[in-house]
Amino acid sequence: MKKNTKLYEIVAALMAPGKGILAADESDATAGKRLSMVHLPNEPENRQDFRELLFAAPGTEEYLSGVIMYDSSIKNFTDDGTPFPDVLTAKGIVPGIKVDLGTVDLHGFKGEVVSQGLDNLEERFKEYYDLGARFAKWRAVITIDDEELPTDAAITMNCIILARYAQLAQAAGIVPMVEPEVIYAGDHTLQKAEMVTTRTLQILFQTLMTYKVDLEGLILKSSMVLAGDMCSEQSTPEQIANATMRTFHMSVPHEVGGIVFLSGGQTPKRSTENLNAMAKLGAQPWPITFSFSRAIEEPVLMAWQGKPENIPEAQKVLLHVCKMNSLATQGKYDSAADAILK
Fold first, then answer.
1. Alpha carbon of 149 to those of 113, 192, 221, 305: distances in Å?
2. Per-residue pLDDT tens digits for 201-239
3. Active-site residue set
């Protein structure tokens, strides 16, 4: 199979040392939940204001290599009429796009879902490429519940869909980010989370290889291996780091272009502490960094509160949060000295 070296160049730019990826790809409905944290109505102007605050913030290019956008934001503009992707590209930040259209129930499998959005994806990729997108993201949802979930059948169905998405992305000259999110909510143990995440990633990469997806031109977006948020025994960052790296070494081929972490509902500080503990384990076969959403955006929202006069302060908070996560990717984050992340 002919290799597309441009994909490797995009992967290298996204996985640049000390930089991570902002996942500002919430659907309009989820963006509304974010805005409601500071009592702002879910209106297009408020979503646009917050995204402009994020994308145009001075200095973020030192710590961010890419930004994942949503359909409505990749087509949106700053107040002075500059398309959002152009704002990012001018700073040397790679624009990305979330392309799955959310989950639907998997018939016959109670409590399990598959992501939709393959219809017309080829055409959508052409449009997004023309708008400036050079990487994409597709999220699958894997739920742990008691002894029965997830089933191998549901994992396999999600992985086949992820593989088809990845094929189409690479054919369009877009780097696919594949995200099988093992959901943090629940009372499962760390051991159960490790077992499920390992199994999920093993099925995923076997499927990707079966369908001839170029692993060097692909990024894995993974959950950290975490005990459920309702589990009576919560883990230390060191336990999480060890369980997560064991999982990767059992599951992820060394030629994969890079691994980025989602925060998955953890607090901003805990996400950063866990990332730091992983970096302290030393160099791995893949470059590893962060691709957080709420863990970056929440402190910024709290500083902004929807008030124009707060924008400079909110952008300073954004720069701080990105810098702390950059330090964490190098194992240099000092949790005790950080007064902003909570």
1. 11, 11, 21, 40
2. 999 999 999 999 999 999 999 999 999 999 999 999 999
3. 179, 221
